[in-house]
Design goal:
7 helices
Length: 233
């Protein structure tokens, strides 16, 4: 029994919870209107909790993707390896963006604003107003990495059987969903926004749950164990 593979399956199952929380938590507080209300976000425990959930979520998802890569490698090293690289790009950028949001934007710039001198407030305002544009640019790269990663993993998995086939189907379903998010966020195309709003909280948790079940099953049938070398003692 491979303990590591079971841990990856549990991580994927926990990522179901974090995925739901990332969708739910922003709906538990009123979206700020105007600069003055945005300044107070660092005092909102639900908003800060969402950022920390996001931070933890990336590690859970990446552990599951690493385990999936081991299984996919035997069928297609190229797609498995490139898919993992894309997921690492996604995870790295999101971790950098979220940690910057937590410690720089909220615990530093927003927290210091009220007590700062007018000159410093003017500088902080420039940083606070400029950060969303920088994050939008990083988020585009993040989404691109996730898009390509899910496509690579989906192509490999859908050639499998049983639960693995379903894992592949849901990986591939994430491709048009991610494209719709990118179109809605970076172009004037908005007619898909309504589809995204109800599809994401259904599709992504199910996808991660299926991945968890598949990884657990693969661990149980020793799929993670290396193939013995012929002739070895």
């Amino acid at each position: 029994m491979s303990t590591t593979s079971y841990i990856a399956a549990v991580a994927s199952a926990l990522s179901v919870v974090t995925t739901i929380l990332l969708w739910l938590l922003p709906r538990l507080y009123t979206s700020p209107q105007g600069f003055d209300e945005i300044l107070q976000l660092h005092k909102n425990p639900i908003y800060i909790a969402r950022l920390w959930v996001n931070f933890i979520h990336i590690f859970l998802a990446l552990l599951a993707y690493f385990a999936a890569t081991i299984l996919f490698w035997r069928r297609s090293p190229t797609l498995a390896g490139f898919g993992l690289i894309c997921f690492l790009l996604w995870g790295f950028i999101e971790l950098v963006g979220v940690s910057t949001n937590i410690f720089a934007v909220n615990f530093s710039w927003r927290a210091q604003f009220a007590s700062a001198s007018p000159e410093v407030q003017a500088q902080l305002k420039v940083l606070l107003l400029g950060f969303p544009a920088v994050w939008d640019a990083l988020f585009f790269v993040l989404l691109t990495g996730f898009l390509v990663g899910t496509f690579c993993f989906g192509v490999v998995a859908i050639s499998g059987r049983g639960l693995e086939w379903w894992v592949g189907v849901f990986f591939l379903l994430a491709v048009p969903l991610t494209l719709a998010i990118m179109l809605g966020g970076y172009t004037s195309v908005s007619f898909l926004d309504g589809v995204v709003s109800w599809t994401y909280p259904v599709l992504q948790p199910i996808s991660r749950a299926l991945l968890a079940a598949w990884l657990w099953g693969a661990a149980g049938d020793n799929s993670f164990k290396p193939t013995p070398v012929h002739g070895a003692a």
